[in-house]
Amino acid sequence: MNYDILYQNIQDGAYTSKLSYKEDKQAYRNDQWLLEKQFKFDLRGYVEYEVGKPLTDKQWYPFYDFVWDIGHSAGYNEVLIYAGELIEVIVPFIKEV
Asked: How many CA atoms lie within 13 A of 96 on its CB side?
């Protein structure tokens, strides 16, 4: 997964439920949970693509938790932006491991 594909998926609403919250709150929540899970999977693919190798769960989860915590309130685009900025910082360290 590269940046352009992930960015386009966000723009196309691929990670946003199309179900009506008012009609069925539980179905909406379940659908949105699955879509967020897909975003997390795709974001990991992007990060691993940029790093040039698979990340261990020990590397991935703190990375994801950090970018999600600081970005998700402003939307998936912000999470992607923070991920991109953090990649630039961590790549030298991850490649050494």
From this structure: 5
Name the nearest CA neighbour of 76 among 35, 47, 34, 48: 35
**What's the number of domains the chain is made of?**
1
Query: What tokens were used for 37?
Result: 């899970």
43-70: per-residue pLDDT in tens? 999 999 999 889 999 999 999 999 999 9
Helix, strand, or coil (residue 17)? coil
| End-to-end Cα separation, the chain, in angstroms | 22
Q: pTM of this prediction? A: 0.91
Domain range for 81: 3-96
Whether 6 and 43 have beta carbons less than 8 Å apart is answered as yes
